[in-house]
Amino acid sequence: MPVPLILAPLKKVSRFDALIDSGADMVYAGYSMFSRGGKGYGLNYDEMKILAEKAACSGKKAAAALNIIPDVLKTEDFFNALERLYLLGIKDFILNDAGLISEAKKKVPEIKVTASVGCGVVNTEDVLFFEELGADTVVLNPLITPNEVTEIRGKTKIKLELFIFFEKEYIIKSKCLLTGYIKEGSSKKGVNCGKICAFNWSTSGRDIDSFFNISKPFKSSLIELTNYYISAGIDIFKVEGRNFPEKIILKVVKSLRQKIQEKRND
Amino acid sequence: MIELSTGISNLKELKETDIESYDAVYLGNPFCIDYEDNFLKKTEDIQKGVEFLKSRNKKAYITTPAVPRNEDFKFIYKLLEASVKSGIDAVEVHNMGVLRTASKIVPDIPKHIGILANIYTSFTCEKLKEYGGERITTNPEVTLDEIGIIIDKSKIDVSFLVHGKIPLGITGTCFLLEEKAGICPEVCKQAFWLKSKEWVLKNVGKGVYSGKDLCMIEHLDLLLKMGLKYFRIESLYETPEYRCKLGNIYKSAFLNKDSGRKNIQQILKISEYGICNGYYFSKSGRYYIDGENKLHENRIFGGLNG
Questions:
Q1: How confident is the model over A249-257, as a mean pLDDT?
Q2: Contact flag B121-A69 (C-beta cutoff 8 Å)
Q3: Which residues, numbered 148 to 177 in chain A, qualify as contacts with chain B under a Cβ-Cβ cut-off of 8 Å?
Q4: Which of A2, A199, B21, B241 has the most neighbouring CB atoms within 10 Å?
């Protein structure tokens, strides 16, 4: 049985070794110009260069997340940035739009592209659509059950990736527009998610405590189902990182590595 | 020629609505297959719905589930087959997997890509044309400027949300049932307003809408100059009276080439929590810019007092 890889988030390039030592097989980092997480989030060009060098030396992979939808006037900058990163040695990219994925593969056919969770993949036909588009990996929505993964696995050879640890959200990942309605700017276009679903919302005549209110802690985990997802055919387990401190991420990666090892030993 | 359309979930609501002002209706509720007598599940009603519309010289479109899981595809195959037999004019899809399926099962029926499909770029529009996409509705977060570029670059027809509550999200499970707010399918017929500070949202069980109605009545000239001709009023979870009144206002405005403030008071009587422009002018979705380009941030844009 193939052993799934662990993909962990890198927020500071100096912490690359810490992530790998805790058990990650690959890391991903937002590219600051085109990454979700708001202004200033992610690695800049020079830091990406260091990351590419570290990845090459260690034999591990590093992926760049250009996972916002760029302003329509900045599309050329978007693809230029992707090509520059490729020339640095970054071969793997995480994108969030069908058209951008298709265009990226046309411009730089050698890259590997992950259709990220923002692409809204929730069924087998979705996976096949993105496979036809040219994606090399598809991130499944964390709603997808192990049984559904088995069904998908039977129909495609594309790599299947799953968020195994992620931020709890009220609305299905990829379908939330709350931030832009309340604040100004879209989280899909780079504005930091306003966590609108976690505000205290009330409805007339009802107790406010639980109505439309994501309670803290905001983390959600499928780690207890790791074995089932491995048996079903997941290739990559992804740990979400944007809003979690590093010590939690390292703990999750270690725990996941242990689970995978135990399954391997069975 | 302008086409004004709206969405109606089931046959009963279709028959209860005076659709005279509309040119087309999208049959079905894409948020929840279990919505009472949803066309998407009660496929035997599709033929009746199409006949009802055609007898009134209206176009009949069918929508499809927005977030279908694998198990939902047995409904989708049945739905598409029933749609072909009934003479539907187009299939609306909100999911790429459904588009792929529809392109194989009903290749000759035009595909409209719906507002929940996350269409942001002209690149995506180009790809979707390969699957039979003939008309797209951009994601609500796409601005007017971006829509103009999409029209220009991809040469695809664009359906424009001109009025109604903005769909802000879909959930995997029904929030109202989880909170024991009532019994399915009756519970989502009531209005559940969610309030926090000055913000208002509408929860419909498996979906969340803006509390305000998006309203572009004061900007119709601009929209027509952009080349837009397909306009949609969002009314899935609204009353037949709402559908009829808004349809009349907009149809009259288009026909008579009049828009502007004379309609606003009428609209505000129908829109309980006020109006906004959504994201069209690159502002917060809940703000309203009037025909004189004045920005209104208040919770209820009423009395023209800003």
A1: 95
A2: yes
A3: 148, 151-152, 170-172, 174-177
A4: B21
